[in-house]
Amino acid sequence: MTAQVTGEEAHVTSYVPVTVGGTALVEDDRASMEVRSPATGELVARCAVAEERDVDAAIAAAQGEVATLTGMGPRQRGKLLFAVADRLEAEAEPIASDLSAEQGKPLTEARGEVAVAVEMWRDAAELVRHLTDELLPSDVPDREIRVSRRPHGVLAVITPWNFPATIPTEYLAAGLAAGNAIVWKPSELTPVTAEHLRRCIAEAGFPPASVNVVPGPGGSVGATLTSHPGIDAVGFTGSPQTGHAVARAAAGRPQLLELGGNNATIVLEDVDVEAAAEQLHPACFANAGQICSSTERIIVRRELHDDLVDALAAVTDRIRLGAPDDPETTMGPLNNRPTLEKVERHLADATDHGARIVTGGRRAEGFPTELYFEPTVVTGLTPQMLAFREETFGPVAFVTACDDDEQAVELANDHDLGLISGVMTDDPQRGRRLAERIEAGIVNVGDPATVWQPHTPFGGASGRRSGVGRLGGRYTIEALTQLRTIVTPRPSG
Ligand code: TXE
């Protein structure tokens, strides 16, 4: 970390500064905010609150670096991306530990997240090293048409707290690979992981203003950044409400927006019920359900309903809720109070409208903070309930019964967020037929919603509210570049 906090807050591990052009700005008059562990309530870091002048300076610095990054060419940038991956890998253990402390996920999940981030840096490096121009045939014989991918220029990146290493990496790795210079506002809830990432990028040898970090709250710093006339494009992952505000603020500029999901997994009557419950376990409860691709609604054939609900309740019995750094723990606390309150609001609304809590449903007692929530199974979910319409983002498996394939598809599509879906069946052809009719960016047949391979295109179906564009491997690089067509006289001879 750039600056240690001393004195009465000696237990504070770090201070996350504004960083512009590779320099940490640590003037005494800049406001800061606390980052507290969701698991213990202890202060784990302080984070600077960037001011308007910082955002201006970060954008000016990034503008000055675009030419350097573009001039390096893709193969040299690829080398630096590999070097970032190597640094992250070498420091994976301390980074995972800090990530777990500020985010609340079990250390094992944090280690897995850092390992995936490492692979994403390598993936971006390989992809960009093979980026080629395209020559199009010309209607006019003496003209050559060359189409190439250029960076947008200054890319504003805003990221959330649920995956503080992988979600930023999606934008940073592909954004730098493409030659953009970046101004990044990480979540104010997980800035320590952001600082690790920024440092690894700098130490890998990227020019100083390649990634500038302006930490702080979204309503002020995020809004200043996304409405700034100096940015050329935006990458954002977060809630639909904020995403729509970002879209308005950056209107007219290229945008890659990944917003929430209210993902359905359909379970057909031909599956083995115990095996289906095992697959649904991580789909509903990994990261305490705080994943935009989590299974939020399970739509099961009525003849299997009771058995599946029993099997789900049995798998939740195995979940060990506890401190993230305890090796026995399989689920940690929720990250923040608004998320806790939303989970409770959705459960209260569901039971008011006739749903039944089979197991869980409450804050767990005996923990240092109120953010530990019991893994929960609820049945009787119906379309008029909040949990059916909005993303719950908590450790809850909501179940509803259906009578046939037609009704299953209708229920799956009866919501506004079409990110990812699953059809669990032993019959791939039947699963495929249903998948063709489900309005989501990804449909897994044989697997639940949640399963995503990071090099494949990830994003919301058109016409829904869950985003614009696609993340994942080369699709992110495509989204973070613009096409430039140059038509020249064809060399004679
Ligand atoms: O999101 P926000 P929150 C969903 C999930 C969660 C809900 C709310 O359902 O319960 O959103 O979470 C910054 N201009 N997802 O409140 O507000 C903010 O500082 C610019 C799904 O955390 O969208 C943070 O850096 N930026 C999701 C980022 O936006 C603004 C991941 C996300 O915060 C801003 C997280 C503004 N006006 C939540 N206001 C997913 N798709 O994975 C806030 N921010």
Q: Which fold name fills CATH's third level, the topology of the largest domain?
A: Aldehyde Dehydrogenase, Chain A, domain 1
> Tell me, what is the CATH class of the largest domain?
Alpha Beta
Q: What is the CA-CA span between the terminal residues?
A: 60 Å
Helix content: 25-40%
CA radius of gyration: 23 Å
Q: Please count the helical segments.
A: 14
Description:
This protein has 493 residues and is an alpha/beta fold. It folds into 2 domains: 7-259 and 471-482, Aldehyde Dehydrogenase, Chain A, domain 1 (3-Layer(aba) Sandwich), CATH 3.40.605.10; 263-454, Aldehyde Dehydrogenase, Chain A, domain 2. Helices cover 39% and strands 20% of the residues. It has 14 helices and 21 strands. The chain is globular. It starts with 13 loop residues before the first strand and ends with a strand. It binds ligand TXE.
SSE blueprint and pairings:
Layout: E1 14-16, E2 18-20, E3 23-25, E4 32-36, E5 43-48, H1 52-90, H2 92-103, H3 107-129, E6 134-136, E7 143-151, E8 154-158, H4 166-177, E9 181-185, H5 191-203, E10 211-213, H6 218-226, E11 233-237, H7 240-249, E12 255-258, E13 263-267, H8 273-285, E14 295-301, H9 302-317, H10 337-352, E15 356-359, E16 376-379, H11 386-389, E17 396-402, H12 405-413, E18 420-424, H13 428-437, E19 442-445, E20 467-468, H14 473-479, E21 481-489
Parallel strand pairs: 1-5, 8-9, 8-11, 9-10, 11-12, 13-14, 13-18, 14-17, 16-17, 18-19
Antiparallel strand pairs: 2-3, 4-5, 6-7, 7-21, 12-20, 15-16
Helix pairs in contact: 1-3, 1-5, 2-3, 2-5, 3-4, 4-14, 8-9
